[in-house]
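Figure 2 data, in text form.
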Amino acid sequence: MPLNYDMPLYRPPSEGDNLIVQVTLGCSFNQCSFCSMYRTKAYSQRPLDAVLEDIGKAARSWPDARRVFLADGDALSVPTEQLVAILDVLHAALPKLSRVSCYATPANLLHKSADELELLKERGLGLLYLGIESGSNLILKKITKGASQNGIATAMSKASVAGLKVSATVILGLGGKSHWQEHIDGTIALLNAAPVTYLSTLQLHLEADIVTEFQSKFGEVFEMQDDHSMLLEQERLISGLNPPNSLIFRSNHASNALALAGNLPRDREKLLTQLQHAMEGEAPLRPWYMRGM
């Protein structure tokens, strides 16, 4: 691909084989204590001309591209008129394009009007990756997420009303040994109040360069959950979920000890049985050397 990316470059696992176009650099918030993804970058919105030039280059090299991911951390922070221009050019340049997606933050969604979100959907934006991390106000504060349970629920509902699919992620282990039940119960309450299309879980992993910051912002001694405790969190989460709409559930991210897949609530009992087998040692867990963020 003849694009000169500003590194580091991140994308969801499901976007690994798709065309990536950088619309922003870094993350507009960049204060979550558990995340080190964009700490080496200052946030900025790339000039529209530069983005459109990249699209032209990519289209000449990969004219049959069907899916595009707009990077970096939260392309939805870009003014709506600029995003519309980008979407229009993408669809004109890539005749087989079927999906455009990007990361989003709760603040991004709250700052866009309902009309703006509907316009973006009409112009071809289809999927938003939203890291909710936790639904507990206590945990959200301890990880400096910059969002509340109510704010995240409102953001997800706005996206749903506009017809945008939301792929939400939850991080198991964020409450540590002291607050794991609060973490999971708050997350259940959030997901039972607002619709998402996809839900994925990750297991907490802290890069060495942010451990001290994470511990400091947490405000008390943080004890990391072990694999068995993470599986108990997963069991509690799945047991309590009664979402407003059926959702597609996955825990196949490389950080997870156990890969799960199903639809909720339809496959609840199947998933709980798989978890029980793993906790009883009857199903193997992913080896540590095969895990990563």
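Caption note: The chain has one domain: 13-280.
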